[in-house]
Amino acid sequence: MAATKGLLAKKMGMTRLFSEDGTVTPVTVLDATSNVVIGLKSEDSADGYSAVQLGFGEKSEKNVTKAEAGNFKKAGVSPRQHVTEFRLADTAGFEVGADVAVADIFSDGDKVDVSGVSKGRGFAGVMKKYNFAGFIRTHGTHEFFRHGGSIGTRLTPGHVLKGKKMPGQMGNKRVTVQNIEIAKIDTERNLIFLKGGVPGPKGTVLEIRQAIK
Does residue 169 contact residue 117 with C-beta atoms inside 8 Å? Predict the structure, then answer.
């Protein structure tokens, strides 16, 4: 995994930003409040790599295991709902138990990669899932308007090839959208305004990382 700085944030929804010349920019609002450093790792330690471990979102103490409770107690923080590692070349500037603000990581105009679980669309056919054109609707065609067509290959190799596009579960998968520009950062409320859309419904917790490309 590439060494990139980042943090966790919750998707609050979408809105618009208006510039002085009247230009309208659609943006997604992310709330990055409650990021806290749970632990630090270094190449000199038994872990063998350098990383910062961030916790995000409050969690009831009754819902954590003894091992998790021990880690949170050692860091001096309350239990967190989500814990994620961000590999860094250098962890200088981070301190266990300290809060991490958006301004400490990103600034206006930065490009980021956003990872999260996409919206689940349920069981879908090939036309909805893969944009298949469907079959002709004339010349006596009936019952096969939205089918995917032939999936076989006759005698050789005599089976359906792996990776064949067929009906199935759509969405509800981890997705990464790259090179999204940060339109604005609200330092007072720890909000990030990203140009365009990001994966998942409202309330989804996303990983925001420095763009690698």
Answer: no
Check whether domain 1-31+106-119+172-213 has CATH 2.40.30.10, yes or no:
yes
The Cα 51–Cα 40 span in angstroms is 6
Residues in Cβ contact with 119 at an 8 Å cutoff, skipping those fewer than 6 apart: 171, 172, 199, 200, 201
- The letter for the amino acid at 129 is K
The per-residue pLDDT for 1 is 55
Task: Render pLDDT for 43-67 as a digit per residue (tens, 0 to 9).
Answer: 887 888 899 999 999 889 899 999 9
Residue type, 169: Q
pLDDT digits (tens, 9 = 90+) for 162-182: 999 999 999 999 999 999 999
Nearest to 54 by CA among 40, 74, 65, 70: 40
For domain 33-100, the CATH class is alpha beta
